User: What shape does this take?
Amino acid sequence: MDKPRHLWDYTWARDLVILLLVVVLVYLAYRIRSVTVPVLLGLALAYVFNPLVTWAHARWRLSRLTSTVLVMLAAGVAALLAALIVLPLVYYQLANLVNRIAEYAQYITTRISPYIDRLNERARDTLAQDDETLSQQLLDWLAQVDMAQIKALMIRSMNLGFDAVGAVGSAINFATYVMISLIILGFCFFYFSWRFDRIIAWFEQWIPPANKRRTVEIIARMDRTIAAFIRGRLIQALVMGCVLSIGWYFADVRYWLLLGLLSGLLNLVPFMAVLGWVAAVSLALVDHLAGGGTFSIWVVAWPTLVYVAAQALDGWVVEPVVQGKATDLDPLMVLLAVFAGGALAGLLRLLLAIPVAACVKILCQEVVFPQVIRLISMIELIHAAGDGPLRRIIRQNPGEFAEVDAIAAGVGT
Assistant: This one.
């Protein structure tokens, strides 16, 4: 007589419950994202700086607390010095760009105005030929106008003054939120860096002993992938920003530091640094022509050569050294992951799309595909065995083969 089976005996039921719990936790974190965002940023910073804290702890025989404080102080001093050196020049270039935008716009308008005039002349000729048809279409459109919507729009426009007052209050609330978020971020950065090893050990105790070794191996592989990608992209962004800034300075690009740093930040996301090159070439060309110069191919060629050299350095030297084949994803998969991340989660979360795709690939290779192959093989064996000894063995071990027997029973012989 077969033992009665409970729903919890089925592996798919347990996995489904765990998946539902994860979805609920993610939803709750999203609902209180004003709190979870600085906490997660603090955790991310602790994750990035953990190797440095661990190295200081082991190298100098310091306590974990002392190593964390020293690393945070060093990072803070480095960030402060960089801000004092770089920010004034960036602010000057940004202010100069804002002041010259009107000049650039006037030049572009002057150059394209003849083409616009030609289009207007053709449009007037076309409208003159179909004047009666156009008038009838206009009358038909006016007959369909909903006056209630126009009234509501007028009432909404008269409330703009009250909205402006509310905007001032919103700005104050935003500044307060930023200050509180920075405090939470700094505290979480410190606490997670200090207790990083204990937090990992606390999570490990919840892994079932039967699957602990395999689970830890998979998580360790994911950790190596994520760590190599994130830290590698940060180093690549820093190198690209420095190389492009220096190269565009010698290429006589007016906003060399601003554009170089922007391109470095864009380099955090694969294939996005090309936008910085487009901006650099466009601004260099417009600035040269608006200043009274004549068109020269070298105005476009020099910034382009600097960008190509920086990309070659990044692709052939920096990336293989600091990142290597961390994600093990093809360029097409990387591109699709970036587009999917931008479509589903927004521009600021594009960086997470690559490590998430890499982790999904690892899960599929280590867990999903072997389970699918195992289920298919067991089902084929069950059907081949009929009602013989093999099926009796499976029925005597419901905890291990419950899902296989259920699928085989559903398919039928």
Summary: The chain has a mean pLDDT of 76. The chain has 15 helices and no strands. Residues 46 and 193 are 5 Å apart (CA to CA).
